[in-house]
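On clarity, I found the account of how folds are encoded harder to follow than it need be. What matters is that the chain and its backbone geometry are given together, residue for residue. I therefore recommend that a typical entry be quoted early in the introduction. An entry of this sort, consisting of the sequence and the corresponding backbone structure tokens, reads as follows:
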Amino acid sequence: MDILQSINGVPIRLTDERWVHIVENHDDLAGFHDEIVDILEYPEYIIVSFKRPQRATDSEMLENGVLLRYRGTELVGHNNNGCLKKMRLMSKNESGIKP
């Protein structure tokens, strides 16, 4: 079991059972354990939801890169894009994922 630290200092337990669940349901991630650990500790962006942002009806991008999500006039969440270091997974050519 890996015990990681979130950007807020909160411990994150990545148990063997959870890792098996991840790779069984996303087999393309099987060879990227270290990258997943890095992403969990240093995410590229953070999504904060007050309510279900997938049901948002409008968005507003602020100059600082924060994306505000609205349902009508009610703020339901925000994405803090680019707030931390780049993910190593994105820089791996063999991953097939483009930054």
User: Anything to note?
Assistant: Residues 83-99 have pLDDT under 50 and may be disordered.
